[in-house]
Structure formats: structure tokens, C-alpha cells
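Sample A.
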Amino acid sequence: MLEYAERHSEFSLEEFAYTLQVGREQMESRLAMVASSREELITGFRIFLNASPDNPGGAITNPAIFTGDTTFSSSKLDSAALQSLFAENNLTNIALQWTKGGQFPWEWLHMEERVHRISLPAYPFEKRRCWPELDDVQETDPDPYISSRVIDIVSSILGMAPAEMNPGLPLDRYGLDSILLLQLLQQLQHQLDPAVDLVKLQECRTVMDIAAMIELPPTEDRQPRLHPENASIAPVSWPQFPELILLNKGSQGSPVFWFHGGLGGVEMYQKLAQKSERPFYGIQARGWLTDRTPLKGVGAMAAYYAHIIQSVQPDGPYDLGGYSLGGVLAYEVTRQLQVLGHAVNSVVMLDSPYGKEFQQGAVSRTTAVLQAVNLALASRNFQEPDKFIQTLIHRDELDFNVEEGKLLEQLIKLGNTRGLTKTEDQIVSMIEANVKIQHAYQFDQYAAMPLPDPDAVTCYYFRNKGGLIFGELEPYFSTTEDSSVLDQAAYWKEWERQFPDLHVMDIDPSNHMVLLSEAKSYETIFAFCEALYSGEGITKEFLQMFKDQTKELHGSKV
């Protein structure tokens, strides 16, 4: 660390401290230093390194330096004492108390600051990691290969070097949320084990937990299952398709494929997928949080997705679905599969819009920036909309008359006070992904062509009866755009023309954006899909009964 400080003349002292505080395990042997400049920090390191080994404990001044060994210490502050200590904001006292023992919530020290983790050196002078080894914690020794590969995969997704990862630190401290969790699931499935289960992965808090969950065959048998040898639907790896994510462990019947919505991800389908007895695949947008180039236009995207589907399931019939834009993609994939001579059984559309009101250009750059930060905040409480709206950033809280870098500073500073755990690099990656995906859709150039065989497919359409697109969420996901014209549009009418066998079921969410967030609406959708994707499927009698029950529960559109 001394060498780093000496070689870097303009690093942020606050981010240096923050990285060491939240990104490293709080070990028994502790060194704390209070320095107000890089020069004081360097002086402190030199004083400490030159201190006599016969006097390792105690305090040194100028700058303030404290050391301690907490192995046998009983001097650990309770929650109330910690709150009082941090409220006083006496850095010298905080440093002293930390060296006496206990786990300190360092985030409290930086609530009003815009700070992020930075890349700091590991410890090359010792061939050991400065955090607990996995075999210190697990009852049995984990496979070193698995441990190493998991650390490589997780660190890559988080934008960190493997040496910076603390295997025992909760992953949400590094900014892992439901969005990045699916990227992690996809990489684990493709690089290690196609059978990695989303539900079990969601229960893992640390890298150690993930390594313990992965099961691989003996070393001599480790060959990736890249292609199916027969028609079995056993999980296989498709590394050529990073857009394809298996969201459940269903093993009965043929797969189900759902397509991403307008923001590019499929994280909103996680709980829905668990209701399916059949394998449930989510297909995210090409280029979403990956370095792949997005395809331009709905038609080109659908052609690529049809190719993915046929690689997994060479022959139909197929069952497709999607929320919002995902339903439009499902329609176009259906059309292209029919052109190729394949059968599609069903398409489930969740309030999927089509019409001139929605066929506008891509969102503005400033809207994309606002959406990315608020999406990161909302992902922490996705299915608790009453909670996540309290954490979102309102456009009126921001000054848009500044350059993008300054706008991002405002957003991250506000986000840090509301639970944002992502680093600036992670937020920038989400912004760039959002922008390039939005521009790639070219929705204004798409025209829904008739199906070659419209009578052969059934469409189940869940319509937001209130018709609001953003509703009260508009100022959190749009900078200046007025969505009132969208709220008045009959955006489902096109599907009445294209699907002779169309079943419209009205549900009553607050707005389009929370269709899969509010319990009343998503429980109805889940119940239907659970029956549709069961081994038996649904009958005409069940469908009529379900439609009647849904109308009684939600009412119908006026």
C-alpha cells in the first residue's frame, strides 16, 4: 500500500479508505490511520513499517496510527454504541475503537459522500490471501478448480480483478443485484455447470457459498456438455448464445421461451419461471451487459432468437411469451418460425403495445442515464413496489443543465444515500447497455406482418385495464417526455387483428411498469402460466373458468 501511495500522485484518499473498509475482511490484526492527505498517509505507512516489532500495539501520533489484535478482545461495541460513535463522526475515536474489535458498518461513514471502490494491489510479498480461505469455513474442502473458476466469473461480472475479491464478503456489498445475478447464472451455467439452479443461487450470499453449491464430475470426466446428443431436455451449455438463460430446473416436457422487455434484461421473469414444470428459458437482448454488438431492428433480433430456440429445440411446437416489447418479439419470432414451417402452440403477451404512439425513436440519453440508476435501485425491491418507489430518484431532484458526467455524479451521490451499491463503472456499463439496446430496436421502422398460419396459434393477452404506462413512475423513468399520449392509446388492437384465437384478460396494476411487481397482478399471471406450462396444459373449460375468475377479481376495461 505504501508503494501504491508513492506511485499514484492523484488518487482519491476517500476512495482509498472506502475500498479498504468495505472491500476487505475485517481481520483480527488491525491497523487504523487518520490522515488528511496523501503525504500524511505515506508518512504514516513509513512510521508503522519502521516501528519496533517488540512494540506492535498501542497508538502513534502524527499522523494518528492505531494498532491492535482483536483475537482475544472482548471490547466490541453493540449496535447502539456504534450508532453513537459514527454520529459523533470523530475519526480518531472511530479508528481507535475499531482496533479494539468488532465489525464496523463503514458505509455509515460515507452516506453523504460520492465514493466508490478502486483497484488496489493485493499482497505479493506473501503467498496467502488476506481473508479466510474457503477450507477454513466449509465442512469439506471445496474443489480448488471450482473455487478459482467461480472467483474468476464473479469478479469479471463485477468489473474487478480476482485478487480484489473477498470470498467471504456478501456479494451485494460489491453491487451484485437481481440484474447482475442473472448474468452470473448464465456464466455459471455456460462455463461450469448447465444445471446451476437460480433458486439455489439466490440463496448464496458469498463466493464461498456459490463454490460450495457447484457440483462437477471427477476431473477426468469434466467435458462441457455443449450440444445435446438426443431429444432430451436435460440442461446443456450453449456458450455461443450468452443471451440464453435457463431460469428454472423444470424437467418435464419441451422448453418455454420468453423474451426480454424494452430494457433488455429478463430478471423480471425469475419468479414466474419457478411456476413452470417445463424448462423455462429467458432470452435477453444481444449486447445487454455483454460486449456483443446489438442487432438492429425487431426483425433481425427475432431471426437471431428463432435460431437460438431451434438450437435448443430443433422442432416445434413452441411456446413463447414476453412482457411489453417481449410480447412483440414473441409475435415476430412466431411469424418467422411459421415461415420456416414450424408450429407455435401459444404466445403469452403481458400488456405488449403496438401502434404509432409507441413507434417513436429511442429514448434520450439523459433519460437512459436516469433509467439505469433507478433500475439499479428498483432491482433491490422489485416485487415490493411500495418500497422501491421510496428509493427512486425523481427527475426534479436533478440539474439537467450540466454535462453527462456531472449528471451521473448527482445520481450516484443521491443513489448512495438510498442503498445503491453499484460502483460508478457498473452504473456506466448499465447506461451504455441501455442506450445501445434502445437505439438498436428501431421500433419506429417495424411493421407487424400477418402470420402465415394465424389459426394455428393461441394468444393469451394480459391487459393493464387502467391503461397507464408510467403512471406515478413517469418522473423516475423519463426526464421530460410526456406519456399521456401513450396512456390514451388502444395499443392491443393490432393483436386482435393478427390473432383469430386471442384471449384478452384484464388485470388491474397501478401502471404498465409494475405489472410483474404488484402481487394482485403477478399472482394472476403466475397462476395462469403455472397451468399453461404444466404437464397437462389447459383445457377450454379451465380457460373459461380462469377468465371468469380474473374478471371477477380485477374487473374489466371500460
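Sample B, a different protein:
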Amino acid sequence: DPSSASETGRTGYDTGRSLSLYVAMGFFPDHPVP
């Protein structure tokens, strides 16, 4: 199902972005979150 695949891809992208922000905040706790 193309729509299901696209939804999974979007969820994975959002999760990766959130993890990247979390890691960045861990390295730079005083850095403002965009």
C-alpha cells in the first residue's frame, strides 16, 4: 500500500529528526531548540 509506506517513511523521518534533536540537546544543553 503506497500510502502506508509513505506514512511509515514520514514517521521514521520524524523519529530520526527527534532523536537527532535529543542527541544535539544532550551535547549542547544550552543550545536553543529551533
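Observation for Sample B: The chain has one helix and no strands.
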